[in-house]
Specification:
This protein has 5 helices and 7 strands. It is α/β, with parallel strands linked by helices and about 130 residues long. Strand 5 (about 85), helix 5 (about 90-105) and strand 6 (about 110) form a beta-alpha-beta unit.
């Protein structure tokens, strides 16, 4: 019986964590469809937060690679006065990057819905 209570408490905590994070993310960032993303990213800073090997394998044309693992050291390379368009493979890393940037005063943050895996636009990759 104690195990069931413990599992129930853990489940409630996990659900609360997910709900709170999604509410924080909604306030911090605007999710865009691919069409909306394409409309605005040329006038913004397009940042791919995937790791360098993922970026080199293929990225959205015009994107700059600032891996989420180095964002804490490199975020000042991103201008806070211009819109920031973020993407990763799915949306997990870009969501965390958006929350990080929001805490540091960035206000125009946009995410690609579904991430790079759903992208059907132009891409660039390093020739192997």
């Amino acid at each position: 019986m104690d195990i069931l209570i413990t599992i129930g408490i853990m489940l409630v905590v996990v659900i609360a964590y997910i709900v709170i994070n999604s509410m924080r993310l909604k306030k911090a960032v605007t999710n865009l469809t691919q069409e909306q993303f394409i409309e605005g990213y040329r006038k913004a800073q397009l940042i791919d937060v995937r790791e360098q090997k993922e970026f080199e394998a293929g990225h959205i044309l015009g994107a700059r690679n600032v891996p989420s693992t180095t964002l804490r050291q490199r975020y000042k390379e991103i201008r806070p006065d211009l819109p920031v368009y973020l993407y990763c493979q799915n949306t997990g890393r870009s969501s965390r990057a958006a929350l990080f940037l929001k805490k540091r005063g960035y206000n125009q943050i946009y995410l690609l819905q579904g991430g790079f895996r759903t992208w059907t636009g132009k891409i660039k990759s390093k020739k192997q």
